[in-house]
Amino acid sequence: MANSYNNIGVIYLKQKNYGKALDIFTKSLKICEGINDKQGTAMAYGNIGLVYFYHNNFKKSQENQLAGYKIREAIGDKHGMALSLTNIANIYINQNDYRMALDIYFQGLKIDKEIGNPHGIGVSYSNIGTCYMQMNEFEQSFQYLNKALNIYI
User: Fold this and answer.
1) Higher pLDDT, 6 or 135
2) How far apart are CA 52 and CA 62, in angstroms?
3) CB neighbours of residue 20 within 10 Å
4) Distance, CA of 149 to CA of 6 (rounded, Å)
5) Nearest-CA neighbor of 81 among 46, 51, 47, 49?
């Protein structure tokens, strides 16, 4: 049931119906917590964090993303940890804190390399390259964007 709520919430999120998405993700969170579903709880926190992100409420977004990350770390969900780190770094990007974003993107990249996740590696390289571009560090930007391209080609 919680998984269905989560999927419905994603639909509302994609439709930019953030109020409904938040309601549905919150229901999912309560169900997951009630049945001690750590994976589902972490996912619900991450999705709630995305709703707040799209509302430019970066403080609440970060709180929820960190809550999801901590659960994923506790259960050893490295793929989920890397995803959470990307979402957290994106918050810093939107606050123009590029150095902090880079640090977090590199943490996620390290995890994706450890678990052999080529998609995650490519996304990380692309995010890192884009971050360097925002910082006007174009040589670094080219380097990482080309690494991303090489993964996708």
Assistant:
1) 135
2) 9
3) 15
4) 32
5) 46
